[in-house]
Write a structure and sequence with these properties.
The chain is α+β, with helices and mostly antiparallel strands. The protein is about 25% helix and about 15% strand. Among the domains are: about 55 residues, no CATH class; about 45 residues, no CATH class. It contains four helices and six strands. The strands form three sheets. It has a two-stranded antiparallel ribbon. β5 and β6 form a beta hairpin. The radius of gyration is 44 Å and the shape is flat.
């Protein structure tokens, strides 16, 4: 028995409502009543819900009960008398594996003469503050000697933004 509570706490018994409304037509385009019986014109019952279910399962394809061997080594790619396709893997036995191994005879990798490793000098690390200070100083020196063609914003390590002048020789054309 399914009982549900409304938002106000009232108990509703759904089975009793279905039993009361079982003979009335259901809303929709299926032509059934509340019980699920198929109804015709005038509300006359043509088939009961039980008869409809039995007919459905009687006419359903019996593929669920089909017996299939799971011991088959090769999957079948088609009908019962289908020929094996090129896509099917080749079955190998221990004897074929041994003969193939003898035929291939694995050879060791050739020895490669190693050359001495040259030392690589690492570039000295510069702090971001030093780099920005040098860039700002260079820009200021150029600003005193030439006329700027524009300005760009440069963020300093402390978060400040400074406007730095741009000159014609700062531009590099992409090749």
């Amino acid at each position: 028995m399914s009982k549900h509570l409304t938002s106000k706490g009232k108990v509703i018994d759904m089975e009793s409502i279905i039993a009361q409304q079982g003979e009335s037509p259901a809303i929709g385009n299926m032509s059934v009543n509340g019980k699920g019986d198929l109804i015709g014109p005038g509300g006359q019952i043509i088939k009961t819900a039980d008869q409809r279910a039995r007919d459905h399962y009687k006419n359903v394809d019996g593929s669920e009960s089909e017996q299939v061997s799971i011991k088959n080594a090769q999957p079948s790619f088609g009908g019962i008398n289908a020929e094996p396709s090129d896509m099917a893997p080749e079955v190998k036995t221990e004897a074929t594996g041994k003969t193939e191994a003898k035929a291939k005879k694995v050879q060791p990798d050739p020895v490669v003469k190693e050359e001495p490793v040259k030392e690589v000098k690492m570039q000295e690390e510069k702090s971001a503050q030093e780099v920005t200070e040098k860039q700002v100083a260079k820009s200021k020196a150029q600003a005193q000697s030439k006329e700027p063609i524009g300005y760009k914003e440069v963020e300093l390590p402390n978060g400040d933004i400074e406007m730095v002048p741009l000159f014609e020789d700062d531009w590099v054309d992409d090749e």
